[in-house]
Automatic annotation (TrEMBL):
InterPro entries per record: Class_I_gatase-like, DJ-1/PfpI, INH-QAR, TAT_signal
EC number assigned by the record: 4.2.1.103
Matches recorded under PANTHER family: ARAC-FAMILY TRANSCRIPTIONAL REGULATOR (PTHR43130), DJ-1_PFPI DOMAIN-CONTAINING PROTEIN (PTHR43130:SF2)
Keyword terms of this UniProt record: Lyase
Taxonomic lineage of the native organism: Bacteria, Pseudomonadati, Planctomycetota, Planctomycetia, Pirellulales
Name of the protein in question: Isonitrile hydratase
Source organism superkingdom: Bacteria
Single biological process term from Gene Ontology: regulation of DNA-templated transcription
Domain DJ-1/PfpI span(s) in chain numbering: 73-235
Any GO MF annotation of the entry: cyclohexyl-isocyanide hydratase activity
């Protein structure tokens, strides 16, 4: 399965377009609905012309409230074997921020294969990435993350961009890669529950929390926490009303069939089995810190 080259925004069916327009109108006032131009959305999903941003800062007839627009440069790292959902959750939230430019950065512009076999096409190479990004984001994984941390080019890219980024962020074991790049020493951070305690090997203070904020280090726990992380970033970079609109548009209202999604709630036999299965991975993470 291949993804199309990501753009700053996606092409949405008419029904979703109307839904978002109505959401914004509710937040901004009834008169706003008539002010949101139709040309902000692309109706033809097969069109080769890049879609206008889903929420466009260039809608000249629209007077957006203070705090609703920005000009962030967001660099999201790609490397072979990263966990797809670690990236796609935050990416969905980021591209809905008006004015933000989201870059998918990799060593080359060749497609990058995720842990589930999905191919993602980078939008920018390491050498062309913004020098001082607003956000550096690193997804996690297992073997792919270890390989990325051992790869000098990738590790140096993370270290260099992390020095100059306004926010240094990760989801899941992406924090292990941040740690290997020397970016977590002296900071509180979280990771997937299987590796969270190992962050201390990199000089960090592990915190059992869904999203951990310590100054400009913002880390999310395992996989699906990327949705919470991304929504938190939208709230902080825009405002709560904007984040509410994004959450509603995504219909992010989790109601899982089982409430066993963290170690504290899980059956000890199941969590113990998973921990045992990943012990070799844990040992390799420890070796990274040596």
């Amino acid at each position: 399965m291949k993804t199309n080259p990501p753009t700053e925004s996606a092409t949405f069916p008419t029904e979703r377009r109307r839904f978002l327009r109505n959401t914004l109108a509710t937040l901004l006032g009834a008169s706003a609905l008539s002010q949101i131009p139709n040309h902000s959305f692309a109706d033809d999903p097969k069109s080769s012309t890049p879609a206008e941003p889903l929420l466009s800062v260039h809608d000249h007839n629209m007077h957006w409230p203070p705090g609703w627009t920005g000009n962030e440069q967001i660099v999201m790292l790609l490397y072979p074997g990263f966990t797809a959902l670690d990236l796609f959750g935050p990416h969905h939230m980021f591209v809905l921020m008006m004015g933000a430019k989201v870059h998918l950065a990799a060593k080359t512009l060749d497609p990058v294969v995720t842990d589930t076999g999905i191919e993602v096409r980078p939008t920018i190479s390491f050498q062309d990435a913004p020098e001082r990004p607003t956000i550096l984001f690193v997804p996690g994984g297992t073997g792919g993350t270890l390989d990325a941390a051992k790869d000098e080019v990738t590790r140096n890219f993370v270290a260099e961009k992390g020095k100059h980024a306004e926010f240094v962020t990760s989801v899941c074991t992406g924090s292990v890669l941040l740690g290997a790049a020397g970016l977590l020493e002296g900071y509180k951070a979280t990771s997937h529950w299987i590796t969270r305690d190992l962050l201390s090997e990199f000089g960090a203070t592990p915190v059992d929390q869904r999203v951990v904020v310590d100054r400009n280090r913002i880390t999310g726990a395992g996989v699906t926490s990327g949705l919470d992380f991304g929504l938190q970033m939208v709230k902080d970079l825009r405002n709560e009303e904007y984040a509410e609109a994004v959450q509603l548009f995504a219909e992010y209202d989790p109601q899982p069939p089982m409430d066993k999604g963290c170690e504290a709630k899980a059956d000890p036999q199941i969590s113990g089995l998973l921990m045992h299965m990943h012990e070799p991975f844990r040992q390799m993470v420890k070796q990274l810190a040596e």
